[in-house]
Amino acid sequence: MIMTSSLSFQPVLERIAEEIEHTPGRGRPADYIPALAARDPRSFGMAVAELDGTVYGVGEWREPFSAQSVTKVFTLALDLAREGDELWEHVGREPSGNPFNSLVQLEYESGIPRNPFINAGALVVTDRLQTRTGDAAGTLLEFLRDESGNPEVDFDAEVAASEAAHGDRNAALAHFMASYGNIDNAVPLLLDQYFRQCSIRASCADLALATAFLARHGVRADGSRLLSRSQAKQVNAVMLTCGTYDAAGDFAYRVGLPGKSGVGGGIVAVVPGRCTLCVWSPGLDDRGNSVAGVAALDRFTTLTGLSVF
Amino acid sequence: MIMTSSLSFQPVLERIAEEIEHTPGRGRPADYIPALAARDPRSFGMAVAELDGTVYGVGEWREPFSAQSVTKVFTLALDLAREGDELWEHVGREPSGNPFNSLVQLEYESGIPRNPFINAGALVVTDRLQTRTGDAAGTLLEFLRDESGNPEVDFDAEVAASEAAHGDRNAALAHFMASYGNIDNAVPLLLDQYFRQCSIRASCADLALATAFLARHGVRADGSRLLSRSQAKQVNAVMLTCGTYDAAGDFAYRVGLPGKSGVGGGIVAVVPGRCTLCVWSPGLDDRGNSVAGVAALDRFTTLTGLSVF
Amino acid sequence: MIMTSSLSFQPVLERIAEEIEHTPGRGRPADYIPALAARDPRSFGMAVAELDGTVYGVGEWREPFSAQSVTKVFTLALDLAREGDELWEHVGREPSGNPFNSLVQLEYESGIPRNPFINAGALVVTDRLQTRTGDAAGTLLEFLRDESGNPEVDFDAEVAASEAAHGDRNAALAHFMASYGNIDNAVPLLLDQYFRQCSIRASCADLALATAFLARHGVRADGSRLLSRSQAKQVNAVMLTCGTYDAAGDFAYRVGLPGKSGVGGGIVAVVPGRCTLCVWSPGLDDRGNSVAGVAALDRFTTLTGLSVF
Amino acid sequence: MIMTSSLSFQPVLERIAEEIEHTPGRGRPADYIPALAARDPRSFGMAVAELDGTVYGVGEWREPFSAQSVTKVFTLALDLAREGDELWEHVGREPSGNPFNSLVQLEYESGIPRNPFINAGALVVTDRLQTRTGDAAGTLLEFLRDESGNPEVDFDAEVAASEAAHGDRNAALAHFMASYGNIDNAVPLLLDQYFRQCSIRASCADLALATAFLARHGVRADGSRLLSRSQAKQVNAVMLTCGTYDAAGDFAYRVGLPGKSGVGGGIVAVVPGRCTLCVWSPGLDDRGNSVAGVAALDRFTTLTGLSVF
C-alpha cells in the first residue's frame, strides 16, 4: 500500500495505534530523572505534519512530554543557520559507533566530538549557539513556540534541576573538551543552558510542526528561510546517520527516515518534501530509544512506502 | 536544476566530467597492491544506469578496474537472499566509528563485526555465502556477469595474489572471529575466497548495471526477484550508514545517497526507484574513498536534486 | 662495587653528579605551568637519607622545587594509615598501561581508577583523606614538615593557581568518577585540595627524609608508627609497579627500586631497610619523568648494587 | 619470624601446606584444554631451591604438571642471552593494563607488544629465538632438563594438540603482528613452536631449580653464565611488573617477589641472591593465577620476611 498525496494520514495513524495497543513489551522509562521515571510506559501518541501545517494525530498526540535530546536537532539547525560550515571544525558528522556518552572516542579525537547528537557534540553546539546569541536555551524555546504556534511550550524547571543533579557526566565531558580548547563558555553556564534545553516540554503535534522546516528544505512556517536547501539536506543526513544513539544503523534499516530520539520517549522523523512525524511513548530499549516509537515509525514506512530508500 | 524523468543523464555527466577535469588534487592510489598503485590518479569514468538498463557514461566508463570492496554489496545481497535475517545474528548493521580495519570494536563486541562492509563483517558474509554455495567467489562472479551482461567481468589473479601476500591483517581478523565461533570455514579457504572476490575487474558500466537491482527494489535484470522490497531497502540503508568506511556521515552529508566504495577507486550509488551510478578514479583520500569519485557524486546530486534527503 | 654499610654515600653521589654534569640531553621542563617552565633543565640535586636521619647530598640538594606528583606517595600513606584496606575498594593497585591522564580505562572499569598514582587515583585518595581529616592538603603539609624537620616546606600559591587554570582535565576526571559515585566531596573543593598538594615546594633533602618511613617499614622520624610493616611493603610495591606513569616497567628494569616521580622533575626512591633517595632535575622525558633523575638513580643502583632485584 | 640463613625452609613449607589444606576455595582449573581441566583443584605442591641446588619440598612437589606460561621466563632469558637489548625494539617491558589476550593495546602500539609475558609478546620472543636457534622449543626443553637435572621433563603432545585446536586467538595475534612486520617466521611454524613450549611438563622441583639462575644473578647450575648480572636483574624486574597477567600489581602488593604464573596452576618466584620457589595448584582465579599458589607465596613472604620490599 503506497500512499498517494491525496490521502489523509489519519487512517494510517489509527491503524498503527491499534497495532501498538496490542503489542506486548514497551521497555522502561528513563529512571535517572524522577519526572521521566513516573511516566506510564503504555502512553502513546503520534502526529504527522504536512508541509502546509496540516497535522494528523492519534493517541496522546497533544500531551506534553520531555523533549530531551529531540531538541538537539533544533539547536543544531539554529547554530548552523548562524555559523555555517565553521561549526564542522568543532564537531564531526560521523556516527559514533559507541554508547552515547562514551569518552573514549573523544579522547582519541582530541576533544572534537564525532557528531552533534551525542552529548559531547550537543554541548559543543549549545556552547557555540550561546556565544552567538547570549541565550541558547531562550533562542531554542522561541523557535519551538514560533514553529508550533503553541506558546505553552516551555522549560520544565523540575526536570532541569534533576538533570543538573545528575550532571557529573556531562560536566566531565564539558571540562574534558574545554581542556582541548573546544568550549568557549564557562562550564557551569554551559551546563545550565544545556539542561534547560533538554527540559523543554512539548507535544507530538508541537514537535512534528517544529521539525517541518526540514521537510520544507529549510523554510520555516512563516515562509522565511532558516537553512539553505543544502543545509537542510545535510541536517537530514546527520539525523539519519547519527540521530538514534548507537542504533542509527538499525533505525535506518527498519525505518529508513532521518530521525532523532530522546530519553523522554519522543522521536521526530522527516520525509523530505512530504511530511514530518513525531511519536511518543516513554518506554525505552537498552539503547535509549522508545520501543513503541520505533515500532510505530517502522509500521508507518511499511504501510505508506514513504522511506527514503 | 531539478531533473525531470524525461531528461537524459548524458549532459549532466559531461558537465561533471568537465568540472572534475579542472579540479586539482586527486589523492593517491592505494599503494599496497602493485596493480592498484600503478593506475593513473587522473583516470576518471562515470556511468548512470536507468531502471530499464539504459546506461549513460563519460570518460573511462568502459575501462575495467579493480572492484575491491564494492563487491561487498553484492556478496551481502547474495547471502541475504539465501539466508535472510539469520545473517544479522552474525554481523551487525551499525556504523563502526573506527578506521575500517580496527580490531578494537570486534573485541569489545565478542567477535560480531559491526557491519557487513568493514573487512571483518565482509569476511563473515563471505564465510556464510561460502557455506551456502560452496563457492562464494564463483557465485558472485556469475551474478556480476549476468547483471552487467558482460562475460568479460573476471577475477584478476595477480591482484588476488597481491592481496594474499598482504593478507596478515585479514588473517588476524578471521582467526580472531573464529576464536569466538563466528567463522564456519577453514581460515585459509575463506581468505582465498575473499581475496578472489576483491580482485574482480569490472567497469563503471558493469557495476552500475549490477547495482540496479537495488534501485529496482530487489528485482534483477531478468525480472526475477533477488531480494524482497524490504530487504532491498535494508541493503540501501546499510550502504548509507556504513558504505564508505569511516566517512559514511560525510558521504551522507555531501552526497546523500546509499553508496559503497572500494580502494580500487570505484564507488557505486543508488537512487532508489530511479537509477544507479558508478564512478571510478584511482586517487584516494585518507579514509580510502576516491577523491574525484566523491566529488563527482556530490556534483551529481547537487545538479539533479536526486538525493534521498 | 657493592657497598657495605660502613661506607658513606657521599662519594657515590659526587661521582654520579659528575657523570650527570657531562651527560648531554636533559629533556624539557613541563611547560603548562609557568613556574615549572622557568626552571633551568640543567639544575640537578640528589640526596640520600639513611634510616637514622643522616642525609648526604650533592648539587642543588637543598633547593626547593615543586614536588607535584611525588606528594601522591604521602597522601596515599596518610589515607591508608587512617582507612586501611577499605581504600582498595575505591582505587586499584594495577599498572595503568596507558598515558597517565587517560579516561579510557576509567570508563572501562566503572569509575574505579587503576592505581593511586595516576591522576584519577590520586583524586580519589585526596577525596577520601579530605573526608577523614577535613583538610587533606594541610594534613599532608604538616606531615612533610614533621618528617623533614623543615618548617619552610610550604604550598606555592602561584603554582596552585596555575594548576587550577589548567585544571579542566582533572575536573573532567573528578566529575566522571563522581558520576559513578566514587567521589564524596564537591568537585571544586576537591580540586582546590588537590592542586594545593601538588604545589608543595620542598628540597631533595626534605623529600628523602619524608620518604624514610617507607625504608623504616612504616615508622616515622619520631619513632611512632604510621603504617604497619605490611602496609609499608605494600606502598613500596605500588610505587614499583605504578610510580612512574607509563614507564614503571622501564624504571623497574633500569633502576630496580620503588620510586615516584613528579612533573616538577623530582623522583623519590626507596631501598627498603636501608635508605631513601630523592633526585631532582627539571628536564622531563616524553613520559613525564626527569631525564637526569632516572639516569642518576640508574647509576646509583649500578654503583651500589642496592637494587631490590 | 624473620629467617636467618642457617634455617631450613622445610618447616615453613610444611606450615604453609597445612594452612592451605584448611583453606576453602581453590578456584577452577583452566577448562579450554581437557588435560588441564581434568586436574584436581585441591592438588598442591611447593618447592624451594637454594642457590647451591638444595631443594625443599612439600605436597605434590615432584608431580609433573603443565608449565604453560611459566616457560615464558626461560624463553625470554634464552633469547636475551643471544640477542641482548635488540630484543627490546620488538617487545616492550611495560605492564599491559589489560586482560592478557587483548588486541587493543597491540593495535594502539603498532604491533609492538607491551611485554614478553602477554601472549603477543611471548610469540615475538619465541619467533626471535626460533630465528636464532632453528628450534626454539627444543632449545627451551634442553635448558630445562639441564637446569633441573631431570631428563624426564618433556613436551606433552596431547596438550600441544589441544592448544593448537584452540589456537585461533594466538593465530590472530601472530598474523596481526606479522602485518606490522614484527614476526619473522611463518605463522604456522611459529604457532607449532609456541604450543610445544607451553605444553612442557615439569614438577615444582624441576621449575624451582630451572629458575635458580635468576637468583644467582645470571649463573646457571653448571657455573656458566647465561645472563649478565644486569640482565638477570632486568628479567626479575619484568617478572615483578608483568609476570602475573593483569594481577601484577596485586601480586607485588601481596607477595612482593618477581614471579611468573601459568594457566596450568604453576607459579615460579625469585628471592634474588637467596632462593627460588615454585608452587602448583590447578585452581585459578578469574585473572588466570593459581588461587592456592598465590596464597602460599603470600604466606611464605610473610613468614620469612623474604619480600624484596
Distinctive features:
glutaminase activity (chains A, B, C, D), Beta-lactamase, 309 residues, two-stranded antiparallel sheet, five-stranded antiparallel β-sheet, homotetramer, Glutaminase (chains A, B, C, D)
Overview of the molecule:
4 copies of one chain form a homotetramer. Chain A has 309 residues and is of the alpha+beta class. Chain A has helices spanning 10-21, 34-37, 71-83, 104-108, 119-133, 136-148, 157-165, 168-179, 187-198, 204-215, 229-242, 248-254, 291-304, and strands at 45-50, 55-59, 65-66, 201-202, 259-261, 266-271, 275-280. Chain A has one domain (10-304): Beta-lactamase. The model of chain A is unreliable at 1-6 (pLDDT under 50). In chain A, a hairpin with a 4-residue loop joins strand 5 (259-261) and strand 6 (266-271). The first copy, chain A, contains 13 helices and 7 strands. In chain A, strands 2-1-7-6-5 form a 5-stranded antiparallel beta sheet. Chain A has a two-stranded antiparallel sheet with strand order 3-4. Chains in contact: A-B, A-C, B-D, C-D. At the A-B interface, helix 11 and helix 12 of A face helix 11 and helix 12 of B.
